[in-house]
Amino acid sequence: MKRPDQFPLAVRYGLIAVIVGGLALLFLAVASGFGQRVVTAQEFVNFQEGGNPHQGFRRAHAKGFCIAGEFIASNHVGAYTTAAVFNQRSTPFTGRISTGGGNPTAPDLASSVRSLALSFNPGTRDAWHTAMNTPPVMPVRTPEDFYAFAQVFAPDPETGQQNPERIGAFLAAHPETQAVREWQASYTPTGSFATETYNSINAFYLVDNERNKRAIRWSAKPSARAVAGSVIELTDDPNALRNEFMARLEHGPIVFDMIFTFANDSDDETDPTVLWGDDREQRLAGIIMVHRATPEADGNCDAINFDPLILPRGMAPTDDKILRARSAAYAESYRRRARENLMNARGEGSQ
Amino acid sequence: MSTHNYHLAARIMHWSMALLILSMLFAGLAMVQSLEPWHLTFLQLHKSFGVVALLAVIARVVVRLRFTPPPLPSSVPVLQQKIAKFSHMLLYLAMFAMPLSGYLMQSAAGRPVVVFDLFALPQILPQNLALYGFLREFHGWVAWAFIALILVHIGAALHHGLIKRDGVLQQMLGSKPKD
């Protein structure tokens, strides 16, 4: 058998073209999504931002403000996790309270979803980000179903209205949406960001010092001492809820109880569509004390990507497909607004 | 003892880093798009092996300085020799720029770089969105420049090996007989 360098000249040139060209094509193919089985992070964020993105802002939960405070551990969960946050008395955090949607100027009261996101120990092995929302469960179990769900509920571009037939067909084909629909039917937004319950939605593992894992979900519940209703009248000011939160802070810190709900033996921690009822074991992990709130433009939370897969030692992600998808989607949104920020293109709506 | 091959240490560094770098480039391009469960695992490995790649290129520079590379044959014109040297310098620059920009961009985002679940690199930049924006795009630009350089490098090596048959490719394969 001849060695390749003994082949006829044309074949030798051809060989070079095939190797170099083939490798170049492979790079281009992988970069343009070849081999990606489901919707990509880019396609997802393209859909989120629509045709006319708000430059410089988060593609989801665009409207929000910064908070700062401390987490005070309870010593009721330290045996289940080595995480520093739950084993030391107090850990400072930077956070953000926001409303759902991609419009950074939308009125606070128009949004159906409210969120509380916290960042602890940035840049270290004990870094922990959590992004909690008012709904306790997800409508579906996979990123491709979530993409389809979001598209079905989006207003028709021609009529500007939702299409009830498509929605009905989707819901019929996806019975797992039942828990979130029941929650929606029973949920009434409160008069304050301080009196909402915010949920991790996805489940995570606590890991103890013998590497034992326990699946949990958590929620931030308003302190029993929180004044119900609103402390000031909610006007038609687009920042009505932010103003209310700041008015509350003048009377002292705003407190949430962080409650861990432990999975039952029959619970599937990879399924974010099933509600874990109150008959599960619950423990108070600590309290979230918000001391300060600042408009986003003056605060220091804008640089934070509240990717819930940034987990400290002592916590681990489950194989929940929705949870696993959040990281790449958050990163793409973060990359786009960081690039726009670099180009100084932060558009209307900065406040 | 003089040899016309690259020193064994240089060849080991070259081929192992070639494998590492190609894997890292493909993994990086794929993982930034993927919403699938393996994304997190890829991300953690990408960061860990990025640190390995940074240590490896430092070691490689030491090897390069310690063992003089074999000269190009005199049949290669002087200008082409200079271009070859320059392209190698750019490859070294890219080998440093990739892991360094990766580390710095994570730092600007306040995200830890945890190496094989053992330790985290120190946070060396303030959390800053515009700074992250620059470093994140830089990481991407350098990746594509690196890919272009690698393709030229492979093309040139194959040109020496298959067309000119002047022994240059064999110097790195370790199969060039002594003259």
UniProtKB/TrEMBL annotation, chain A:
<dbReference type="InterPro" id="IPR024168">
    <property type="entry name" value="Catalase_SrpA-type_pred"/>
</dbReference>
<keyword id="KW-0575">Peroxidase</keyword>
<feature type="transmembrane region" description="Helical">
    <location>
        <begin position="12"/>
        <end position="34"/>
    </location>
</feature>
<dbReference type="GO" id="GO:0004096">
    <property type="term" value="F:catalase activity"/>
</dbReference>
<keyword id="KW-0812">Transmembrane</keyword>
<keyword id="KW-1133">Transmembrane helix</keyword>
<keyword id="KW-0349">Heme</keyword>
<dbReference type="InterPro" id="IPR018028">
    <property type="entry name" value="Catalase"/>
</dbReference>
<protein>
    <recommendedName>
        <fullName>Catalase-related peroxidase</fullName>
        <ecNumber>1.11.1.-</ecNumber>
    </recommendedName>
</protein>
<dbReference type="Pfam" id="PF00199">
    <property type="entry name" value="Catalase"/>
</dbReference>
<feature type="binding site" description="axial binding residue">
    <location>
        <position position="330"/>
    </location>
    <ligand>
        <name>heme</name>
    </ligand>
</feature>
<dbReference type="InterPro" id="IPR011614">
    <property type="entry name" value="Catalase_core"/>
</dbReference>
<keyword id="KW-0479">Metal-binding</keyword>
<dbReference type="GO" id="GO:0042542">
    <property type="term" value="P:response to hydrogen peroxide"/>
</dbReference>
<comment type="similarity">
    <text>Belongs to the catalase family.</text>
</comment>
<dbReference type="GO" id="GO:0005737">
    <property type="term" value="C:cytoplasm"/>
</dbReference>
<keyword id="KW-0408">Iron</keyword>
<dbReference type="GO" id="GO:0046872">
    <property type="term" value="F:metal ion binding"/>
</dbReference>
<dbReference type="InterPro" id="IPR020835">
    <property type="entry name" value="Catalase_sf"/>
</dbReference>
<comment type="function">
    <text>Has an organic peroxide-dependent peroxidase activity.</text>
</comment>
<feature type="active site">
    <location>
        <position position="61"/>
    </location>
</feature>
<dbReference type="GO" id="GO:0020037">
    <property type="term" value="F:heme binding"/>
</dbReference>
TrEMBL record, chain B:
<feature type="transmembrane region" description="Helical">
    <location>
        <begin position="44"/>
        <end position="63"/>
    </location>
</feature>
<dbReference type="GO" id="GO:0046872">
    <property type="term" value="F:metal ion binding"/>
</dbReference>
<keyword id="KW-0813">Transport</keyword>
<keyword id="KW-0472">Membrane</keyword>
<dbReference type="InterPro" id="IPR011577">
    <property type="entry name" value="Cyt_b561_bac/Ni-Hgenase"/>
</dbReference>
<feature type="domain" description="Cytochrome b561 bacterial/Ni-hydrogenase">
    <location>
        <begin position="6"/>
        <end position="174"/>
    </location>
</feature>
<keyword id="KW-0349">Heme</keyword>
<keyword id="KW-1003">Cell membrane</keyword>
<dbReference type="GO" id="GO:0022904">
    <property type="term" value="P:respiratory electron transport chain"/>
</dbReference>
<dbReference type="InterPro" id="IPR016174">
    <property type="entry name" value="Di-haem_cyt_TM"/>
</dbReference>
<feature type="transmembrane region" description="Helical">
    <location>
        <begin position="89"/>
        <end position="109"/>
    </location>
</feature>
<feature type="transmembrane region" description="Helical">
    <location>
        <begin position="141"/>
        <end position="163"/>
    </location>
</feature>
<dbReference type="GO" id="GO:0009055">
    <property type="term" value="F:electron transfer activity"/>
</dbReference>
<dbReference type="InterPro" id="IPR052168">
    <property type="entry name" value="Cytochrome_b561_oxidase"/>
</dbReference>
<dbReference type="GO" id="GO:0005886">
    <property type="term" value="C:plasma membrane"/>
</dbReference>
<keyword id="KW-0408">Iron</keyword>
<dbReference type="GO" id="GO:0020037">
    <property type="term" value="F:heme binding"/>
</dbReference>
<keyword id="KW-0812">Transmembrane</keyword>
<dbReference type="Pfam" id="PF01292">
    <property type="entry name" value="Ni_hydr_CYTB"/>
</dbReference>
<keyword id="KW-0479">Metal-binding</keyword>
<keyword id="KW-1133">Transmembrane helix</keyword>
<comment type="similarity">
    <text>Belongs to the cytochrome b561 family.</text>
</comment>
